[in-house]
Fold this protein.
Amino acid sequence: MKPKVAFICGGGQFPLVAARAAQQAGREVFLLGLRGIASRDIEQFPHVWLGIGQLGQGFRELTSRGIREICLIGGLGRPEFSDLRLDWGGVRRLPEIVKIFGGGDDHVLKGVIGLFEHEGFAIVGVDSFAPELLACEGAMNGLPFPGALAADLEFGRKCLADLSAYDCGQALVVAGRRIIAIEAVEGTDAMLDRVAHLREQGRWRARGATGMLVKGPKSGQDLRVDMPAIGPQTVASAARAGLRGLAVAAGRVLILERAAIAASAEQSGLFLHGFAPETP
Amino acid sequence: MKPKVAFICGGGQFPLVAARAAQQAGREVFLLGLRGIASRDIEQFPHVWLGIGQLGQGFRELTSRGIREICLIGGLGRPEFSDLRLDWGGVRRLPEIVKIFGGGDDHVLKGVIGLFEHEGFAIVGVDSFAPELLACEGAMNGLPFPGALAADLEFGRKCLADLSAYDCGQALVVAGRRIIAIEAVEGTDAMLDRVAHLREQGRWRARGATGMLVKGPKSGQDLRVDMPAIGPQTVASAARAGLRGLAVAAGRVLILERAAIAASAEQSGLFLHGFAPETP
């Protein structure tokens, strides 16, 4: 029998899709919903609600069910230290927790993973049981990647790679070897909305569909717990920004409901291209 | 007698301030206002209006007055090729002009400079006659740069330096070794407004005054024609974003009305610090 898997559930629909995919892959699932963050829909599955600081209880819930594999999934925002409302299990680990709150997102996640691994849990990525949730290589809809944009894609990828050292920049918009926008804290969809706005204002002037979103993980990003993602809003915002398409790292970007999103991109005239991971 | 200097005037108040400073430095000035872009206030000075594509007439206006030094100043936006309405002088230079419209901002400016230099004009920066318009080194108001932020400043500067290779990123906001926002096409003030918005939305959560703007030229940026600048709106936006201050490259960032801006920053509790150019 395949081992049980627990989902520590942040916000949004990803935890539900992932849990369903895990069930379809023959796994028994158990969901720990972060109170005030996870969707109430997790109650469709065996579950328990936890405050974000209730590490002690979390560990007990898992151990008592014989669960050793956990998957952290869904948006967390960035919890503020004062939101943690630590339980005793959390307080015991306070020195580590304090350390976690001193850097970028990547740093926070590495800290959280460390806490779980220290207790003997294995952290698994959603790709280990639901590879169909990831971008595949090449064209994902009927609009092939335009060869003329290859240099722009390379330019954008290199720029993202260089930004990795600063623990930021999962995505950018590039057009004609010009970087139109770079994502930091605002998120991909907000960045695309900015591009749409720049265009409406005439701050970025381009005729017809121009430019593309380039998105992929930062180098060194722990994909088990922090996989970049695109969703229906990403496609809608890219269309509003008047882009030609979306290029995402194959196998390294989550696409919830890939077929539907690929189709809706195509309807908006946007290619959806999975680029191969960099050859070193 | 000091040589005459001509200003090719883009938008905003910078051309006026620069022309006044040049007069105070004993220079005879002549302003070429770009039609639809430059402020009507340039008519306070000896001037002529030109369409952006009327290179031929521009060259004649300068030559007939015996002017060899020119200063390109003020915001241009990014002219669209179809806006150029080329005159015969422009048409003759069409091959070069077409080449100019294929890359980043830096590329456009290099091309424009090349056209002028090819005709024998010398391009001078505003710093050559009005150094008082530039950021100086160290504290520019009564709030000294907090030593605890030195690591953040270094982090932000390095990130900007790495982005230089992509002809973008004149400014960013950094807080606690975390990049909150990076400027691309939107401009510094819009980036700061985004940070204010992220904070209001709770997307970036920080207590009290936190983080700083770091701004300086891209490496290789031609400061004669493309000096980064901050103005009253920058200070207002930084205050709204709840930052602790502004750090700008000394001698490489224009501050229109430096004393007034430094004072208004201080009133908003913001330091205004000029950091020394990088030692190679």
Remarks:
- Chain A has a mean pLDDT of 85.
- Residues 5-128 of chain A form a domain with the Rossmann fold fold (CATH 3.40.50.20).
